[in-house]
Amino acid sequence: MELCFLKSRALDTLKNGLPKIYDKYFMQRDNSWLAEVCGENPFVKFRDVPDFELAPLDKGLGEGEILFRNCKILYKKLNFLTPRQAADERFWAGLCHGVFYDYLRRRHKHDKR
């Protein structure tokens, strides 16, 4: 699994343009729209790690249980991060818009709209 940071320019573009692009999060099944909106590949490769999955969404778990399990998974799988990296918004935005884009769409039920 390739972990990426979202480029600063891309993050700024998404934040500043949110009112205009908000629907893309609901309507687009993959993240290919990001390059068009950002005008370039929005990602910077950070590190390859063994594949892992987040908490299952189809096991009847409540929101709190999903959050708790995901915290444990991320803490275990990303324990190599420095405090500075772990606090960097670009890293988490990279995960959400990159390798876990589909997961987050399903978690927030965007795939059902």
Short account of what is shown:
By secondary structure, the protein is mainly alpha-helical. The chain is built from seven helices and two strands.
Please tag this protein with its features:
113 residues, mainly alpha, globular, 2 strands
**Arrangement of strands in the largest sheet:** 1-2
Helix count, DSSP H or I runs of 4 or more residues: 7
How much is the radius of gyration in Å? 15 Å
How would the global form be characterised?
globular
Low-confidence runs:
none
3D structure, described in words:
This protein has 113 residues and is mainly alpha-helical. The protein is 53% helix and 10% strand. It contains 7 helices and 2 strands, in the order E-H-H-H-E-H-H-H-H. Strands 1-2 form a two-stranded antiparallel ribbon. The longest helix has 15 residues, at 63-77. It is globular. The protein starts with a strand and ends in a 6-residue tail after the last helix.
Helices, strands, pairings?
Elements: E1 2-6, H1 8-16, H2 18-27, H3 33-38, E2 43-48, H4 63-77, H5 83-86, H6 89-97, H7 101-107
Antiparallel strand pairs: 1-2
